[in-house]
Amino acid sequence: MAGSGQLRIEEATQVDEELVAAFAALVPQLSRSAPAPGREELEAIVSSPATILLLARDGDGRIVGSLTLVIFRIPTGVRAWIEDVVVDEGARGRGIGATLVEAATERAERAGSRSVDLTSRPDREAANRLYVRMGFAPRKTNVYRYTSRAV
After folding, report:
1. Which of 2, 14, 108, 143 has the fewest CB neighbours in a 10 Å radius?
2. How does residue 150 score in pLDDT terms, banded at 50, 70 and 90?
3. CA distance 143 to 151
4. What is each CA distance from 138 to 81, 116, 121, 130, 131, in whole angstroms?
5. Is residue 150 part of a domain?
6. 67 has pLDDT over 50
């Protein structure tokens, strides 16, 4: 567990009503179009060997942020991706995002990943400044997305 002052970073290992409620509050602050995950979706994330759901708790123990770290092996090595970083609007500006990212990069390194990738929309200016400040560099690559017609 990593921490900063009263802030505590921990891995979610079980799904309870507190976790479901926290994501119901956090996800709309991250995406206007994605629905918040319910208990089933959170259980799939928490139980997957490829995903680590990190939670930031304030001094009162309240969940004020989260980050999903995905670690997987491919033929060219171990890869790690950071996804869905979100800090509650009322708790921003206190280094919570940085502490979550630092905990994730440490976990990825321990798992054998030489690098950690992430994407961030250009309009998330504060998040982009944070990632650059923490040593992330833009990559010269194309990102493609296939949208399933079945969904």
Report:
1. 143
2. confident
3. 21
4. 14, 12, 12, 13, 10
5. no
6. yes
Q: What is the mean pLDDT of residues 140-149?
A: 91
Computed over every residue of the chain, the mean pLDDT equals: 94
Given a cut of 70, whether residue 63 has pLDDT beyond it is yes
Model pLDDT, residue 127: 92
> Helix, strand, coil: what percent of the chain each, to 5?
35, 25, 40
What domain range includes position 53?
Answer: 3-133
CA angle, corner 77, sides to 76 and 81, nearest 5? 110
Residue 24, in any domain of the structure: yes
The total number of structural domains that make up the chain: 1
Are 65 and 91 contacting, i.e. CB atoms less than 8 angstroms apart?
yes
3-state secondary structure 84-119: EEEECHHHCCCCHHHHHHHHHHHHHHHCCCCCCECC
Q: Return the closest-CA partner of residue 58 out of 4, 120, 131.
A: 4
Instruction: Give domain status of residue 51, yes or no.
Output: yes
| Range 88-100 average pLDDT | 96
Say if pTM beats, i.e. exceeds, 0.85.
yes
